[in-house]
């Protein structure tokens, strides 16, 4: 029996077929509700090598790679939905701002450091830090290093 020329592609096709058997389309909302394992409301999917979040796999399968520094957000606010039309790649900050959690929304909207009142600096990866507090912490750390030498 001849070997398939592209075993990865054949494997991906089989995995994609398995994926499409694991959700139920809801007519009213258009959501594709994950019918497999759920963890904190999010679908989990075994791709043959790793356990992945089903919505992230759906995004990659239908739209391509998730851009660096981005997360996959549910426009429908339904974590078990895997419909690629309901998914979008956005920054973690934008995801928190859209959150229904009041605490996450409040914390992500803060522009100034609660310790010193200085403006936050946003790093390359999208997290924020206060330059004043970071510089102060580094001065204290260097002083401790000097004492131990």
Task: Explain what you see.
With 149 residues, the chain is of the alpha+beta class. It has two domains: 1-109, Alpha-Beta Complex (Homing Intron 3 (I-Ppo) Encoded Endonuclease, Chain A); 110-149, no CATH class. It contains five helices and nine strands, in the order H-E-E-E-E-E-H-E-E-H-H-E-E-H. It has helices at 7-20, 54-63, 92-98, 102-108, 131-148, and strands at residues 23-25, 32-34, 38-39, 42-46, 51-53, 70-74, 87-91, 120-122, 128-130. The strands form four sheets. The protein has a three-stranded antiparallel β-sheet with strand order 3-4-5. It has a two-stranded antiparallel sheet with strand order 1-2. It has a two-stranded antiparallel ribbon with strand order 6-7. A hairpin with a 2-residue loop joins strand 3 and strand 4 (42-46). Helix 3 packs across helix 4. It is elongated. The protein starts with 6 loop residues before the first helix and ends with a helix.
The H/E string reads HEEEEEHEEHHEEH
Number of helices: 5
| Total domain count | 2
Strand order of the largest sheet: 3-4-5
CA radius of gyration is 22 Å
Terminal CA distance = 69 Å
CATH fold assignment of the largest domain: Homing Intron 3 (I-Ppo) Encoded Endonuclease, Chain A
What share of the residues does DSSP label as strand, in percent? 15-25%
By helix and strand content, what is the structural category?
alpha+beta
Number of beta strands: 9
CATH class descriptor name of the largest domain: Alpha Beta
């Amino acid at each position: 029996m001849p070997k398939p020329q592209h075993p990865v592609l054949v494997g991906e096709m089989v995995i994609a077929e398995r994926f499409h058997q694991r959700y139920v389309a809801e007519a009213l909302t258009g959501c594709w509700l994950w019918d497999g394992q759920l963890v904190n409301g999010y679908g989990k999917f075994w791709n043959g090598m790793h356990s992945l979040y089903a919505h992230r796999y759906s995004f990659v399968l239908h739209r391509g790679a998730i851009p660096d520094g981005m997360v996959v957000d549910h426009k429908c606010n339904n974590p078990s939905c895997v419909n690629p039309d309901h998914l979008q790649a956005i920054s973690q900050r934008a995801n928190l701002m859209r959150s229904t959690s009041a605490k996450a929304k409040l914390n992500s909207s803060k522009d100034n450091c609660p310790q010193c009142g200085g403006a936050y600096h946003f790093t390359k990866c999208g997290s924020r830090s206060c330059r004043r507090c970071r510089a102060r912490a580094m001065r204290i750390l260097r002083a401790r290093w000097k004492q131990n030498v």
